[in-house]
Amino acid sequence: MDGQEEALDIYVRDLLAIARNQDRAAFARLFGHFGPRVKSYLLRLGADQAQAEDLTQEVMLTVWRKAPSYDPKLAGPSTWIFAIARNRRIDALRREKRAQLDSDDPALQPEADALPDRTLDAGRWEARLSQALRELPQEQAQMLKLAYYEDRSHGDIAQSLRLPLGTVKSRLRLAIGRLRTMFGDEK
Amino acid sequence: MPRPIHDEYLLDYAAGSAPEAVSVLVASHLELCPAARATLARLEAVGGALLEQLPPAGLSPSTIEAVFAKLDSTPQDIRAALPQTHDASGLPKALAPYIPEGGIEKLQWRKASRGFEEAMLTRQGPHAMSLLRSTNGGRVPTHSHTGTELLLVLDGSFHDERAVYARGDVSIGDGDVMHSPTVDRGQNCLCLAVDDGAARLPGVTGRLLNPFLRWYAKAR
What we know:
The complex is a heterodimer of chains A (187) and B (220). Chain A is mainly α.
């Protein structure tokens, strides 16, 4: 187990401790790591400083509130917190338009299936995925980051990079294909 | 087993960048398609790994204080994730906010193409989301599309020149697709339809004729 895998395992334990004992020290550690990254994510998606601070606050309180439903077999801590941040942001964007359901409500979530390799817990699996992402060819990694962080359609990405839409789509497909190989999925 | 929708739709859903109507269709599909759920879990893990790689942005001390001050008044949800169950209607839960009490019969159904009826659920920006159904067979004349139309089968099935679409399957129709969706005589089909409005006409006449015209657009 390398350093990063070990580090992520700590956050799995922290989430479980928050769920079991409302462990504030565990929450403080988790907050110290993920709070600034969640804020960074929100800033990249176009939130201003004040919105990013407010939403980060909501996200981290949601982490505290929903820790009892965290299942390390289904998602690593980064994945779970990423999904909460994504959903909170979508809710914030839609709030003005219509009363919106709580998109974290388990009843509205597609039932999650366990990750492919059950011999690895999700925290460790997540660390391997990070490694795989770093090994992607640069142009594929760039496409993925734009897709996740820029909230733009594939058409917009194509326009701003002055690439044909087909090239953007095929790079995204290649990136997903490579990651699938890494996930051990059949072709 | 339903066939999963293309990865690019799941990627947009995982990244949170799908427009609302498209995300409702994808969420409904996910409820019905285990293979799509498995791919989504992987794509969300990509989001998690990318989050991990972001440079941390400093939080103001007041935000940090505010969070810790609120912990005591933030009770934890003791409810564990509920198993996914559908209500008696068999409709995906993601659709529930758009369906009136009393079910889909309470919607305003309008005659659409031959043998089909359509009920509008919502419009958001260029996107329109509706239910389309045929209760006793029908056939849409051969046509292409000016925009992109997604059809998720919720009940029954239809077929076209490409495939048979049953509950959980998604048909994607765009300018490259020429087809005539058909529900066999005596059979029924209920679909969730999302289109990006490229072929939409305004006004009452447009609304009445729209599904027909949408299907006819470019079919010459």
